[in-house]
Amino acid sequence: MGENMFSYTDIHCHILPGVDDGARDLAESIAMLKLAYRENIHKIILTPHQKPDRKCVSVSGIHKRIELLSEELSRFPVDIRLYPGGELLYSHELTGQLEEGILPTLAGSRYALVEFLPDENWSYIRDGLYHLSGNGYWPIVAHVERYAQVAAKPERVQELIDMGCRIQVNAGSLTGDWGFGLKRIAARLIRDRLVHFVATDAHRGSGRRSPQMEKCALWLKKKAGDEYAWELLHENAEAIFANEEI
What we know:
The chain has one domain (8-242): Alpha-Beta Barrel (TIM Barrel), CATH 3.20.20.140. Helix 9 packs across helix 10. It is 42% helix and 14% strand. Strands 3-5-6-7-8-9 form a six-stranded parallel beta sheet. It has a three-stranded parallel beta sheet with strand order 1-2-4. Helix 4 (122-134) links the parallel strand 6 (111-115) and strand 7 (138-141). It has ten helices and nine strands. It has helices at residues 26-38, 59-73, 94-99, 122-134, 148-151, 154-162, 171-174, 180-191, 214-224, 226-242; strands spanning 8-10, 41-46, 49-50, 81-84, 87-89, 111-115, 138-141, 166-170, 197-199. The chain is an alpha/beta fold.
């Protein structure tokens, strides 16, 4: 597959307007979606933050806002399909809240995008994900390169994969937008084939927190090959929509 022979799917972004620290209003959401389309992103799972210590948008609120956003987007020549999701900060109550439908999975599947605090203890991360996986969910670890207790030791990432987790890194980390340290960690995980998804984690309509993917896609094709880039940017996301295990 040559350059631009497939479109990209973004499984982690904060484009839904006015619900977290991402897009501040509808206008910024539309600006972000226009940029995403120029970046060859044609499918997006909208993943507003879900934190246990804060008032967050409900699952029904996510669906309602996606309908309004899609209606507004239809006024522009931007062909992007939007799906519901959330970025879930892990807590001991997470599994029960998922089972009760209080918190969203990705596109209604068994995949759940889970984040932790950057300095969280390894045993807490491992045990939490093990519990989630053991209850029938497929956890996707959000921006794993940020967790020093995990990403610095590839064998720990492999342990998470072996227990049923899938791994996501941010495109901006791979392109160096967040510094050499994160780039080195993320690139090593790519080299070792320990990553399943690359996503934008976009929060803004411009700058390094915008939904940029092309630069990273070119880097992936050059450093990891077309086939692995295809998996990271497109094919593995299709498993989410089909609710199939990768």
